[in-house]
Amino acid sequence: MTRLLKRQGVRPSRMITDKLKSYGAARRKLGLSIRHLSHKGQNNRAENSHLPLRKRERIMQKFRSPGGCQRFVSVFSAIRNLFVPSARITTALSRHIHRVRALAQWNNATTLSA
Fold this sequence. Notes:
The chain is 63% helix and 5% strand. A two-stranded parallel ribbon has the order 1-2.
C-alpha cells in the first residue's frame, strides 16, 4: 500500500475498502489521517475491476499447484485473446470474419509447431 500511495504523487482524500478490519489497521500503521469508508456499496467499482481475477481464482481450485495454474492461464489467455473479438466489433458478420481469421491463424501456428 505504501508503494501505491507513493506512486500516486498526491495524498488521497479518502480510502474506500470493504469491511475487512486489516485495512483500518494498515491505515493507522501508515499514519494516514484520511477518512476510511467501508460501506457495503461504495467498494463496488473497485471490486468489479477484479472480476477476471476472481474467475481465474475459481478456476485455480481445480489445479494441484499455483505453478500449474499459472502455466495454463498464461497460455489460455493468449489463445482466448485471439478468438474473442473486442467489444468494438458489433455486427454478426464482422464477428464471424474475426473468428474465421483467428481459426486460420491458429491452424497456421499449430501446423508450424507440429
